[in-house]
Amino acid sequence: MIKSDSENSISNPKFKVLRYETSVYQYFIELKKDSLTSNGYLDLAKVPGLYVIGAGSFLKSIRTKNKLSQRTIAKALGVSSMQISQWERNINKMPLNYLIKLAKNLDINKETIYSFIESGQFDIKHKLPVKLERISNIVKYLYPVKNNYKKSINLLKCSDEAIKELQSALNVKIFYHSKGKNKNRGQIHSSGLYNFLKVFFRYYEMVKIRPPLTSEVRDWHENDIDLKHAVICPLLQTDGWSTTRESFKTSPAIKYHGNDEILHKLLVDAFLFEYNLLPTTYFHKGADGCHVTEYKQKNVINIIADILSICGSTKTSPARGQSIETYLQESQPHLKYLKTSSNIIQMIALRIWASTEGCAGLQRRNGYFTPSLTISCAHPVLARQLIQIAARHNINFTKKTSKLTWSGVNKIVNTSLCGCLEFLKLGNFIEGVKIVPKANIIKV
Question: Could you tell me if residue 383 is inside a domain?
């Protein structure tokens, strides 16, 4: 299940910054505990593989000041005298951990070494900082990754000013996969910077949404209701969508479209209880103005296979530009899973179907007003099976035709007072969902 706030607790409040956020997660970076020395330096001795550039004169001065030979220093550090000579003449770069080890043996505080690096008396490759202030504004754009044993750093999308500051502060080259003013998907190849980030910073995520978001789904789950049959499949066969059997292995995805957040909450809760999975996108407003909840994780492929094994398909009409003949050759949606389910599951599914595709209203007949309940459905098999399932609960629907739909069917309608009362007994529309009859909005 989802981690609690205590499990995502912050270990060091001295530095925490939001890297970026989605509709579901916030991604943070924080300074790890015990990363700073008493004088506020980043303790570079913790970072493996760092080399000091230009420290030869300092090495020679502390050796001669303490009247030590190169051979003595070499023996203390476990290297050759030739290596000490090359370090003193700056022919080779000296490992930082050797310099700090030598300084410690000579009662020189490692912070003295860090102060020399900070002042520029000698340097670290890529100008890795010893003061947090030098990297605090840009570290949120850097994310260390390791692919095929190769250490690199992904660069998140940032402004040109941030890129200039990053290049100036770290003296690194950025390789881009795409071009543009606001460059994205950049990468830095540097094992030193990678080790630096991994040693000093912790990368973690926090969930913005905290399911269960509804009491209904929680109660259904506690009463052992099969949420796949009662909630997930009905939602996906109405306002939802999943990759078809023919393509789900290459680009698996599950989406739910709709502007009523309550229905999105039902889906999120059902997915959490049945699959222990949060969406990648939650109730995000798209360019077309419609809100979307989406699942695109790698393991969604198994979930899609499971859902399609239950309901056949979530695709209830031909795609744009697809012929009816081609569509009918694909796996077709059905409600067999509901016809063999318990009464309570059928009741929940009917309520969801009415809440997503239905409306309630009044019609005038022979001078009297009678209630009507309408559920839009253009798939003839689904329409017929909905009528059969509703009839078991004493709600008698009639199929209506239209030349404007691909199948000639456009909805099922109940115009009897008894049928509407029976629907109320089932539980009515999902509480809080806005039901729209024509231009009027009735909030239930």
Answer: yes
